[in-house]
Design brief:
- The complex is a heterodimer of chains A (219) and B (570).
- Chain A has 219 residues and is mainly alpha-helical.
- Chain A has one domain.
- Chain A is built from 10 helices and 3 strands; from the N terminus they run ααααααβαβααβα.
- Chain A has a two-stranded antiparallel sheet.
- In chain A, helix 3 crosses helix 6, helix 4 crosses helix 8 and helix 5 packs across helix 6.
- Chain A is globular and about 50 Å long.
- Chain B has 570 residues and is α/β, with parallel strands linked by helices.
- Chain B is 21% helix and 19% strand.
- In chain B, strands 1, 2, 7, 8, 9, 10 and 19 form a 7-stranded mixed sheet that branches.
- In chain B, helix 1 runs parallel beside helix 7, helix 1 packs parallel to helix 11 and helix 5 crosses helix 11.
- Classes of the chains: A mainly alpha (219), B alpha/beta (570).
- The interface between A and B is large, with 88 and 96 residues.
- Bound molecules: flavin-adenine dinucleotide and iron/sulfur cluster (SF4).
- Flavin-adenine dinucleotide binds next to helix 1, strand 8, helix 8 and helix 11 of chain B.
């Protein structure tokens, strides 16, 4: 089963007793720093702004905030800094670079300079590119994977070892979309304004008219 | 520390010692202290104070540093085994062990996932809370089929103790009158949603001998024994300040503390039970303090090992003497053998058309249960002995259904405001046969952080389990098809022994001291004042989630032990 299949399988389960942790097991996430003087750790400021705009193209502001309003680019910066291994990070960043080149080629402007219609057109091209490009699965050497963080893993020889780390290098659009959606729907505005979230529901009703419930539960 | 040893005993001397404070240890502590015994509870992990130490309980999705998954690097470095079990995530990882400190080794062609919680409360903090009784279908199975040895007890021996424990723990569920899944003392059941109700009807119409009930769970649907009712948050494994699910914190340990007879000592790694050759009895235990590495000794008249099946087995294997060169209470040679678990990760799921105008309110941390229908009531399988039950449930897809596709923009965003289609999911949990070849031993070379020999696992599945897992997928698919499911997807995913987190069987009960470690009261055949009341005692596995059985057997064993003590019989 590849990762996209896994994701759609898991999407099917949303809401079941098993779902919360299972979903969480497949999707990554990170606390989004909300300091006003936030600086990206891995992205350049320009890349961060480009990603903010691309994310906002996937989930634009409507009567509720869009992905560009809730700090999704900060979340992405954290994921690529603290969660991704080098291969994934390089792969994602080269995707950002190619999107920028495409913007220049197609519209003669940086991503930041595009109108929202042009950004939507660019996004459509990214979709088509993604459809044409199969995801790569690569095995990562554990030591190398975490070398950048300091101590490599040292597990006593002979003991049950960590599983081999396999990472999927998704086409840029799919990875961007996933990060955007996770970042957005687990943000406070995404969870509570666009969808709904109640920390303490207090009761369970198994059959309530959708009309009365309202929107999709964020969790 | 709530009480000191009684005056007429020496320092470090108690009436009783309980090793482990998880599901079985909590009950042992409660029962012993309520019967008036000064009891020392030794727990290798840190203290976890009810509510105070549930540090992630109030986190909203946006508060979680990694939004539910976890720090992947930290998992790979410190919890590379624990994180392979589905339920481990960012918000509960602190209730699972560090794998680097607690390694184990594997024999040839073996794999095992050992999922542990070393802390006061053990895995009672993180368990799934499903509770089902065994029946004589289970207790008679070995004898009926000529598999290994017979259980020394029958359902009628344990039934009153199930009653007693269920009333104490608080189990919500629906009585169904199924002989091989006996009804218990239930609190009102949780509700099924519309699709589940439909599914139940479809199963009953289309299949003889099959039915479906709401999960029987140690979660309170009303206040009970000073604990609050469930608020349907589905945050259970973070700890629950309402005390709405059963944990040692709000159960056994709380009530043991209340008696004034309990001394709880966290950070105490028991590595040996001391055998007194003169009296033929256990004198006490040896402990390494996890923090100071100091070595200590504690004495008592009776000892209850409740360190989890493999934890207790490890202690016994490590307790060697001239009398017991192969491990204490191991004259039979059965100690460490017959490792069992509940093989799972096979089943099916499908989209269920209809009910687009229906949804639910609240996060019910409970699912449905389809009781065993294989090799019972006239059904006979060629491919395998025993059977399995399903857990699962129906739900509507949420926003995550949008991740894998090509859409974006305003319409896409709007479309996710409504929930997606319903789906139904069935996951089998099967019975594994006891086999001598599935065993643990002390590794002759590798030691843990405290210099103690680690366990080496020799565990694999037999054809019986493999065939059964295939049937779990096929039969689930068949039921989903019959109910009108679309895109029915059966699956048989990789599963390693232990992954079911129901490891058991390594100090089994039996009538014959030559073939078993424990007698019908969980008392060591070889050492009368030594009891093992966790999953190690299981002679066969059943397919039901086992913890309520451990609790019932623990209470029963304490009752017996104290009666014997009072009669001078220990
Ligand atoms: C995610 C998850 C879901 C589960 N779902 C279910 C379910 O739905 N239904 C069900 O019935 N069961 C379920 N289980 C299994 C259940 O948790 C165990 O069956 C149960 O906890 C066993 O109880 P125990 O007292 O034997 O062991 P534990 O609860 O593990 O407690 C053992 C205690 O002993 C301590 N200990 C170990 N070694 C030593 C030592 N040498 N010295 C001192 N102390 C020691 C440990 O630190 C621990 O605190 C689940 C488990 C997990 C992790
Ligand atoms: S779902 Fe119920 S038992 Fe679980 S944490 Fe919430 S209130 Fe507690």
């Amino acid at each position: 089963m590849d990762r996209r299949q896994a994701l759609s399988r898991i999407a099917l389960l949303t809401g079941s007793a098993l779902s919360y942790s299972t979903i969480a097991g497949v999707l990554g996430g990170c606390e989004v720093p909300d300091a006003p003087d936030w600086q990206p750790e891995t992205l350049t400021s320009v890349q961060a702004e480009q990603l903010r705009l691309l994310a906002d193209t996937i989930i634009p502001a409507t009567d509720t905030p869009g992905a560009g309003d809730v700090g999704v680019e900060r979340f992405i910066d954290q994921i690529i800094t603290y969660w991704m291994v080098e291969e994934e990070r390089d792969h994602f960043l080269s995707g950002v670079g190619r999107a920028q080149e495409q913007a220049l080629e197609r519209f003669g402007d940086d991503i930041e300079g595009l109108t929202s219609d042009q950004r939507a057109e660019l996004m459509q091209e990214l979709v088509e590119a993604a459809e044409a490009q199969p995801a790569d699965v690569v095995k990562v050497e554990m030591d190398a994977a975490w070398a950048a963080y300091g101590d490599p893993v040292e597990v006593v020889e002979g003991t049950r070892q960590p599983p081999e780390l396999e990472v999927t290098l998704d086409p840029f659009f799919y990875r961007l979309k996933e990060l955007t959606m996770v970042g957005y729907y687990t943000s406070e505005p995404g969870a509570t304004e666009e969808l709904q979230y109640i920390h303490v529901p207090g009761r369970y009703d198994g059959c309530e008219p959708l009309e009365d419930v309202g929107r999709t539960w964020a969790v | 520390m709530s009480s000191s040893p009684s005056i007429n005993q020496g320092p470090n001397t108690y009436d009783a010692i309980v090793v482990g404070s998880g599901i079985s240890g909590g009950i042992a502590a409660k029962e012993l202290t309520q019967k008036g015994l000064k009891t020392l509870v030794l727990e290798r992990g840190r203290n976890v104070e009810h509510s105070v130490d549930y540090i992630t309980e109030e986190h909203r999705p946006w508060d979680e540093p990694f939004r539910g998954q976890t720090d992947r690097r930290k998992m790979q470095e410190e919890q590379y085994v624990q994180s392979q079990a589905g339920p481990v995530n960012e918000s509960n990882a602190h209730f699972f062990i560090n794998d680097r400190d607690n390694p184990y080794t594997l024999g040839e062609d073996s794999d095992f996932l050992w999922i542990r919680g070393h802390q006061v409360g053990g895995r009672s903090l993180t368990w799934g809370r499903q509770c089902y009784r065994l029946s004589d279908l289970d207790f008679e199975a070995n004898a009926r089929e000529g598999v290994e040895i017979d259980w020394p007890i029958r359902y009628e021996d344990i039934a009153p103790w199930y009653d007693y424990m269920e009333e104490y723990v608080g189990i919500s569920g629906q009585a169904e009158g199924i002989p091989h899944l006996p009804d218990g003392k239930f609190l009102p059941p949780m509700a099924m949603n519309c699709v589940e109700q439909d599914f139940r009807e479809s199963i009953e119409q289309n299949f003889d001998n099959r039915t479906m009930t709401i999960g029987r769970t140690a979660m309170l649907t009303q206040t009970h024994n000073g604990r609050g009712a469930c608020q349907y948050r589905n945050l259970c494994s973070r700890g629950c300040s309402y005390g709405a699910y059963y944990s040692s914190q709000v159960g056994g340990l709380r009530d043991a503390r209340e008696t004034g007879n309990m001394t709880l000592r966290p950070n105490s790694i028991v590595y040996e039970v001391i055998f007194d050759s003169d009296t033929g009895r256990a004198r006490g235990v040896r402990v390494i303090d996890r923090e100071t590495e100091e070595e200590l000794e504690f004495h008592a008249d009776v000892i209850f090992l409740c360190a989890s099946a493999l934890g207790s087995t490890q202690i016994l294997l490590n307790s060697t003497s001239n009398d017991f060169p192969d491990g204490l209470a191991n004259s039979s040679g059965a100690l460490g053998h017959y490792v069992m678990d509940h093989p799972f990760k096979a089943g099916a799921f499908a989209e269920m058309p209809g009910y687009e105008d229906q949804y639910y309110h609240g996060r019910r941390a409970n699912g449905i249960y389809i009781p065993r229908f294989r090799n019972v009531n006239g059904d006979q399988q060629d491919g395998f002995l025993r059977g399995y039950g399903y857990q699962g449930g129906a739900s509507r897809a949420g926003w995550a259904r949008g991740i894998g596709n090509d859409s974006f923009g305003v319409d896409f965003k709007e479309s996710l405001r409504e929930p997606g289609p319903w789906s139904m999911f069935l996951l089998g949990f099967g019975e594994m046969l006891p086999r001598y070849e599935n065993y643990v031993e002390l590794d002759p070379e590798v030691t843990d952080r405290w210099g103690l020999p680690v366990l080496r696992f020799h565990t694999s599945l037999s054809d019986n389990e493999q065939n059964m897992r295939q049937d779990m997928a096929d039969s689930a698919a068949e039921m989903l098809e019959a109910a009108g499911g679309r895109n029915v997807t059966p699956f048989v995913d990789d599963y390693a022994v232990g992954e079911g987190i129901h490891e058991m069987g390594t100090a089994r009960m039996g009538a014959d001291p030559n073939e078993s470690v424990l007698n019908e009261y969980n008392q060591a055949h070889d050492v009368p004042n030594l009891f093992v009341t966790d999953g190690a005692c299981m002679t066969s596995a059943g397919c039901q989630n086992p913890s309520i059985t451990y609790m019932a057997l623990t209470a029963r064993a304490v009752d017996y032990a104290v009666e014997q003590m009072n009669n001078g019989g220990l």
